[in-house]
Amino acid sequence: MRTPAGRRTVEVLPRRWVVERTLSWLGRCRRLARDDERRPEHSEAMVKWAMIGPMTRRLAPAPERRPRQPNTAK
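RESULT FIELD:
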């Protein structure tokens, strides 16, 4: 958030919630809780592996979480 000069109210930056939400998802991964990797490439790989789970759940949700399909069979 930032406060423009001359204003007392706080202005929320556009789409910041997307970044905050993603960092929250990454925070759930135990391996990313500490920085034990020796090389930056390994840390980058762990972040990518940590995001595979949430992305696949969003692309192919479990059957009980899928939106209801209209019944068009007659």
